[in-house]
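re: ur question from yesterday

yeah so i grabbed the chain u mentioned. its 334 aa long if i counted rite. heres the sequnce exactly as i have it in my notes:
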Amino acid sequence: MIAVDTPQVRPLDASLNLQRKAALAGGGAFDHAGQVRVEPMSSFDMSRTIFGGMKGRLARMVMKDKLAKETFWSDGAIEEIEAAYAASQAEKPVPSLDQALVDFMMEECDFSMEHADGTFLQHLVFCHDYSAKYFSNYSPNVALLHSILGTATNTFAMEARKLPRLQELLTDFEWAHVQAFPSVLRLFYDGALLPELEANMSQLDRLKAIRFHRVIDDAPLQLSAKDLWVNFNFHLMHFVDFMPPANWGTHRTDPLMQQFKALSHFLDSAGLRWAQVQVSFPKGGKDMLGEAPTAAGRISRAIPLPIKRRLAQKTIQKYSEDVGHSLLYELDWR
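ran it thru and got these structure tokens back, copy pasting raw so excuse formatting
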């Protein structure tokens, strides 16, 4: 008998935690106050995360306090979320990951850094699954590979010389959006793009395209207006995975939550919210349930929101400057 080699399937080690399962089951981001206990993580090494290169003592202290948290769910919450997730999967199973992309990620890339919660691969698989369920008209491969050409903190999973190989594995649509995602994220934090679009809300139908620069090598890129709105919706889903598990009222000045809120408001106002993302942003502070305030948390909450926004803007500008990436963009109006 002649032996026949069969392709080796290399699944990603990316099990989903309860907060992600709740998001996938409910189609959005939720404040789980009263269902979960949040405690500081005793052994946390920020250098192993995508935020390891963050500069500034205050910024690092606040980010470490945000990330170094452990969640302990009530028995009732565990049972409820697992049941809802199982039902959601049975009703609409997510497609399997593209094995060619998985092989490329495992063999040609380095996703060893950790994410805000768990491994980076868990974050990527969550984004893929969420996109497949709640933005199903568009390829979830964009969500899977959204950060392969760079995160906001200058970590790069692959080298620029491998760009042609990655492009071969993607459709034209996927390639355009995978290239654009890291750049559009930085434009959000630089703070000019959304306000300019909001100022022209009455004539968004005249927008033809946007021109900007690719993060990994500063190459010029362009998206049509339609593709820009699609990319915005990928970002809307992406923000779901950065929300705290509970007590949003206390954490409401978190720059990530504020950016999520700004993008959500813009897409609603413009009638461009195409992805399903349920979310209710807090309007004021509330007592913390199951989470004791920390010293760093108190300092963070004492910083006025305009100052936090300016700090976020300066931080992203410095990251782009460090890798020779231009944050300049141009809107092409008909």
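noticed a couple things. Residues 172-190 form the longest helix (19 residues). also Confidence is low (pLDDT under 50) at residues 1-10.
anyway ttyl
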